[in-house]
Structures are given as structure tokens and as C-alpha cells.
Specification:
With 408 residues, the protein is of the alpha/beta class. Helices cover 32% and strands 24% of the residues. Among the domains are: 77 residues, no CATH class; 128 residues, Transcription Regulator spoIIAA (2-Layer Sandwich); 55 residues, Beta Barrel (OB fold (Dihydrolipoamide Acetyltransferase, E2P)), CATH 2.40.50. The strands form four sheets. Strands 5, 6, 7, 8 and 9 form a five-stranded mixed sheet that branches. Bound molecules: iron/sulfur cluster.
């Protein structure tokens, strides 16, 4: 079995789905229908979280020959070679050890390293514990071996991910394993950097906060889901912190120096009235956030919140998300403006742009470097301005990495 060459339709199309919102479900169905229209001869195999949650729903879509659960996805090659069709979805909540997975790559410069899966928190709105199973971690040795492979393959940034990354190591009886992992990953080489993906605010290890100011190659970027600025809503969501805890954490992080902090917020959660929403607006307004991801609450079948009364109507939720997005945009613009005049370490993204190079700073803000050609490795850029959602910069130096003259 080989990957089909770019631009040609393969014999088999694998669709990996998400089910975190009803919109993600809808997008997956639309994609499958489009693929079935465009490649009628191909077999479509659907896997991922939506497949785990509602396999029969997906099996009934046109062109779908097989639906595989999360565990079964690991044997996808053997199953396809054996011509197995139909639905194969085992129980999600079984406690399987986490096996090293095939890393997902953002082109040639940044790679994801998944070290944790599942979650035991059961926030009332969230379907993750039902589809990903119990929290489990990749042992440190396996994670480092994967990290080695990514560096050998030429990646300059390792993004450490997990469904509940803050709980990394707990199931192995090893507290404080995430800071150890970060230090060990940084120790695998001298020029790459490490970034952490989303971490629950109540689970962030204080040592990680300390490292943000002292480990130069740990990206000064954290994504910390807030979900609501109202304690009434946070309680109903079964979140294990209050708005003041979150604000205090951001205060401690900001005291380490400049850090790009992003947050998720859900609007329209059942029981969120005008007052609770205004509390969220006020909290977000005061927080030192670099960007905001706003989600409209959508009922996930099987979750506790799906049974809550006082579901918020669509138009109200839409209007709230609009207002919060505007606030998030204003905060993002202010953050970008605050960086003009500074020097930031940047790494080219794989996506080509017409008149230069689009790079990613350690703070996560994108930087456009005009009239530059792609290069390898992390270099320093002087930030000269802001254009749209990106910073403008000029390369000023950094390690002596070879220029990359082709895009191959
Ligand atoms: S901690 Fe995150 S993944 Fe776990 S249930 Fe809550 S929202 Fe979902």
C-alpha cells in the first residue's frame, strides 16, 4: 500500500474525523459526501472521534466502505490489506496503553508529538472522555525516541500535544513528568525549539511557568482554555478553577516576561444569562491575552450538559459570539502592535507566500518577511510593523543555517 501521488485519486480515502462540536460533525459529513462525488471508484474509510461516537451514522453515508474506531485506526493498514469492510469500533473507555503514533507534520518545519490521550475530567459539555477513553501517557523513553526521530527527519520545532496534556504522567504514577519531558526534548539538540499545545489552567505545572522565563528554546506560548468568565457557568461546566484563579495564573505567567497566551471560550452554555455573559466579557477584557478562540456551545449527545434545561437560543448565542470575537480581535491586534520594535526568533512555515516567507515566532504570532527566500532553522527577526493578522519583520541574523533554494 502506497500513498497516492499528489493530485491523483487513490483507491482508498481515509477520513479522520473530529466530533468536538456539532459543526465538526457537519463538516465531516460534507467532506465525505464531496469525496464520494469526486472519486466514486474510491473506497472511503472513516475513523477518528466522530467514527468512535456514531459509527452507524457515518456508515450510512455514500461511498463509505468502513468505519474504524480510535483503537482500530492503529491497525488501519492490516485491515485495508485484508479487505475488511463495515464497522469496527471497540469500547472507547477501555484503558489501553498509549502507543507511539505516526507524528503529524506541518510541512517540513514543525511536527506534532502526541504524548498523552484521553481525559478523566468529564467537563459537562465535553465528549472527549467518551470518545478518547481514560487518560493515558506515553512513557518518557518512548516520547524521547519519537522526538529523536523528528529531529533526525529535519524538524526544527516539536509541538508536544495531548487531549489533556496537563495530566501527562499521572497514569504512570509520575508527577511533574511534563517539565522533565520538555527539558529532555530540548536536550536532544541545540537548535530546535519545543512548544506546548493546550493545557488545562488548573493542571499547569509551576515548573513549566518557571521554565518560560529561563529555557530560551521553550516557546513563550501557552494555550489555556478559559471557557467562561462566570463562576456560575464554570461550576455548571464542572471546571476545576474559578475566574480569579485563571486571572492569577495569567498574572504569574506574565511576570516571567512576554508570553503569547491564547484561550478558548464557549458562549451560550445552558444557563448562561446576560449577566454571566457580561461577566465573561469583563474578565476577558482584563486578561493579558494574545488571541481568543470563541466557540458557540453545541449539544454533544451523551454528555451531562445535553440534559441541562435553559439551553440558550441560536440568535442569542450568535450575537454573544460576535461580541466576544470582536473583543478577541481587538486583543490580538493590541498584542501584535506591542511587538513592533522587538526582535523575535522565527521559523519559516511550510506554506509559501507570494512575496516572501511566512514564519512563526516563538510567541506564536505569524511574521511575514518580505523579499526573503525560505531558509532552514530558527533565525532572529526585527519586527517592523503589523499587516492584517501578521507581524512584518526583517531577518537580522541567527544561527548560520543553510538557505533552502527549492521548496522540495
Ligand atoms: S479537561 Fe478538556 S478534554 Fe477533558 S473533559 Fe474537560 S474539556 Fe474535555
Amino acid at each position: 500500500m502506497r500513498p497516492a501521488p499528489p493530485g491523483s485519486a487513490g483507491d482508498v480515502i481515509v477520513v479522520n474525523t473530529c466530533t468536538v462540536t456539532s459543526r465538526a460533525d457537519q463538516e465531516a459529513r460534507q467532506l465525505i459526501r464531496r469525496l464520494a462525488r469526486e472519486s466514486p471508484a474510491a473506497k472511503i474509510v472513516v475513523t477518528g472521534c466522530y467514527a468512535q461516537r456514531a459509527p452507524e451514522e457515518l456508515r450510512s453515508l455514500p461511498g463509505v466502505s468502513a468505519v474504524l474506531g480510535i483503537a482500530e485506526r492503529e491497525e488501519i493498514g492490516e485491515r485495508l490489506r485484508g479487505g475488511q469492510e463495515g464497522v469496527a469500533v471497540g469500547p472507547a473507555r477501555a484503558k489501553r496503553p498509549l502507543a507511539p503514533s505516526i507524528p503529524l507534520h506541518f510541512g517540513r518545519t514543525r511536527a506534532l508529538l502526541k504524548v498523552q490521550d484521553g481525559c478523566d475530567s468529564f467537563c459537562t459539555y465535553c465528549v472527549v472522555p467518551y470518545v478518547r477513553g481514560r487518560a493515558r501517557s506515553l512513557p518518557l523513553g518512548d516520547a524521547l525516541e519519537q522526538g529523536h526521530r523528528l529531529l533526525d527527519a529535519g524538524f526544527d520545532e516539536i509541538v508536544v500535544t495531548g487531549a489533556d496534556l496537563g495530566s501527562y504522567g499521572e497514569d504512570l504514577g509520575q508527577r511533574g513528568l511534563l517539565p522533565r519531558l520538555v527539558k529532555s526534548l530540548l536536550g536532544l539538540g541545540r537548535t530546535h525549539r519545543v512548544r506546548l499545545s493546550s493545557i488545562e489552567p488548573n493542571k499547569i505545572d509551576p515548573e513549566i511557568v518557571t521554565m518560560l522565563g529561563s529555557e530560551a528554546r521553550l516557546c513563550r506560548h501557552l494555550h489555556l482554555p478559559l471557557q467562561s468568565g462566570s463562576d456560575t457557568v464554570l461550576r455548571a461546566m464542572k471546571r476545576a478553577y474559578r475566574a480569579t484563579d485563571y486571572a492569577a495564573l495569567l498574572g504569574r505567567i506574565s511576570a516571567r516576561g512576554r508570553v503569547g497566551i491564547g484561550a478558548d471560550v464557549i458562549v451560550g452554555f445552558p444557563g448562561e444569562g446576560e449577566r454571566e455573559f457580561e461577566e465573561t466579557m469583563a474578565v476577558v477584557e482584563d486578561l493579558p491575552l494574545a488571541y481568543l478562540h470563541v466557540f458557540r456551545y453545541s449539544t454533544r449527545p451523551g454528555t451531562v450538559a445535553a440534559r441541562f434545561p435553559a439551553q440558550v437560543g441560536g440568535p442569542t448565542a450568535r450575537e454573544r459570539s460576535e461580541r466576544l470575537r470582536e473583543l478577541g480581535d481587538a486583543k490580538r491586534r493590541a498584542f501584535l502592535r506591542s511587538l513592533v520594535g522587538s526582535r523575535l526568533p522565527v521559523l519559516p512555515e511550510s506554506r509559501a507566500v507570494e512575496d516572501g516567507v511566512l514564519a512563526r515566532s516563538d510567541l506564536y504570532a505569524p511574521v511575514l518577511l518580505r523579499r526573503e527566500r525560505p531558509w532552514r532553522g530558527i533565525v532572529e527577526a526585527q519586527i517592523t510593523g503589523v499587516e492584517g493578522d501578521a507581524l512584518l519583520g526583517v531577518r537580522t541574523g541567527g544561527p548560520d543555517h543553510a538557505d533552502v533554494s527549492t521548496s522540495g
